[in-house]
Design a protein that fits this description.
By secondary structure, the chain is an alpha/beta fold. It has six helices and eight strands.
Length: 261
């Protein structure tokens, strides 16, 4: 599990920055109906971002992150993974998420990401012209793979997503499909994360370079897996830098100003 149940993003809210937020039910092309949370910017800049959670699926951490992006002008949708296997929207702290993680498929995840992209790009609204993805842990690996899905993304951001070796749900290794990636990549890693040693980051770097994919991979010395957490005071500076990396990445690929971080 990436975060403790009471973890939240280490980002200060901006009063009035989000126009509204709501729970959603989205439908994928295969008929799967799944939970999502949408936050819209008061002053949209034309960017949207799909938030891809860790193994727990949609959790208050990611709903709050969606709000923080909206406060910076970026419409956001955070999605759940378990519409095909979990009944009902209500989940307490005892929800057995791993029983559902073990039933995920790569095709199903890809279909759900496409549905979220379609929702953010609703033509009748015209708010999102530049689309990004961001993911954490399992969702970080998924985010690294979204540039292979034909979504015409402006960029993909992964935090502590394992870029090499076998993955959950039959997801391919990002390093092995780098040649199919069609947008820039930002990867953020903890230097003290035993699940992603320096050799794994280096292999991803080499694959992206050989494929000609624009990228920036940043490792924060001494930071563990899931360091981007309000409770992790000792890694507050790494979190601040990581948030600024995310905003800079979006700023540089969206033709308009983004609120200062």
């Amino acid at each position: 599990m990436c975060f403790d149940l009471d973890s939240r993003p280490p980002i200060a809210p901006i009063a009035g920055g989000a126009l509204d937020a709501s729970d959603l039910i989205l439908e994928a092309a295969d008929g799967n109906r799944f939970r999502a949370f949408r936050a819209r910017a008061t002053n949209p800049i034309g960017a949207g971002i799909i938030v891809l959670p860790d193994v727990r699926g949609l959790h208050p951490y990611y709903e709050e992150l969606a709000l923080r992006f909206a406060e910076h002008g970026v419409d956001a949708v955070a999605i759940d993974y378990f519409g095909r296997t979990a009944d009902g929207p209500e989940r307490d702290d005892g929800f057995d998420y791993m029983a559902h993680v073990n039933r995920l498929t790569w095709d199903g995840l890809a279909a759900d990401v496409r549905a979220a992209a379609d929702h953010l790009r609703m033509e009748n609204e015209g708010r999102v012209r530049f689309l990004f993805t961001i993911g954490f842990c399992m969702g970080g690996r998924l985010a690294f793979l979204t540039p292979t899905l034909g979504l015409e993304l402006a960029g993909a951001i992964g935090l502590y997503g394992i870029p090499v070796g076998p993955g959950r749900a039959g997801m391919p290794a990002p390093a092995e499909v780098a040649a199919r990636m069609t947008c820039p990549i930002l990867g953020l890693f903890g230097g003290a994360d035993p699940s992603i040693p320096p050799e794994s980051v280096a292999a991803f770097e080499e694959a992206l370079t050989q494929a000609g994919v624009e990228h920036r991979l940043v490792t924060y010395d001494g930071a563990p897996h899931s360091f981007f957490d309000r409770k992790a005071d000792e890694f507050a500076e790494a979190s601040r830098q990581a948030w600024e990396e995310m905003l800079t990445f979006v700023r540089g690929r969206t033709p308009g100003p983004l609120a200062d971080g």
